[in-house]
């Protein structure tokens, strides 16, 4: 039974893209059309007090945070971390809505990959996480406003931000094989700048977390600080996740 009514309008967003996307809420975040049927499930995802959420815009350092925070909270068990893939130790909550759907028919590399292509075999963490043992470490690229309203009051949240210019370059190379063959970086940069790429607008995404940076259950990190001084950044993170380090 739903605890919260999903409060936002959803509108179709074509705009010449090679896939179906939608815009959500007053900040008009761009998400894959698969989000339409799952919006309420994300918004009403059942939380636990010992959950740790790792949030950030794509290509901002969330995977690096996943590994670091998991290790800190698992007694630096490197052997275990090497034996279990990161997405099993720290599931990606919204993985299935992070890619364009249907995948671009204009990209020959993807279309020739066959049915064994990783992105064609996505299994929803929404189905597996309710049965996962505690404590759960959960990654998401969704902005705070599209996640459960009681997230910060119930769980621990680590948000990582990165210079949007560097995000754009990294995101382009991640998504390149899903884009039309003639969409080079110049076109991609224009779409990113104009908030036409998945999960944009990036500044609104970051501002939502920045506005909650003083909440006792939130720690706001940056990719740049993590790169300059990993040890201090991890000490800060460990204090907020209540694990001595």
Could you characterize what this model shows?
A 4-stranded parallel β-sheet has the order 5-4-6-7, sandwiched between helices. A 3-stranded antiparallel β-sheet has the order 1-2-3, with no helix packed on it. The protein has 12 helices and 7 strands. The chain has helices at 35-43, 62-72, 78-83, 86-89, 108-111, 125-128, 151-154, 164-175, 185-193, 202-210, 223-228, 230-240; strands at 10-13, 21-24, 29-32, 52-55, 137-140, 156-161, 218-222. β2 and β3 (29-32) form a beta hairpin. It is globular. The longest helix has 12 residues, at 164-175. The protein has 245 residues and is of the alpha/beta class. It starts with 9 loop residues before the first strand and ends in a 5-residue tail after the last helix. Residues 101-107 have low confidence and may be disordered.
How many extended strands? 7
Low-confidence stretches: 101-107
Tell me about the largest β-sheet.
Answer: 4 strands, parallel
Q: What portion of the residues fall into strands of 2 or more residues? A: 5-15%
Pattern of helices and strands: EEEHEHHHHHEHEHHHEHH
Assembly status: single chain
Average predicted confidence as pLDDT: 84
Radius of gyration: 18 Å
Shape: globular
Main-sheet strand order equals 5-4-6-7
The CA-CA distance between the termini, in Å, is 39 Å
The helix content, as a percent range, equals 25-40%
The helix/strand class is alpha/beta
Count of individual helical segments: 12
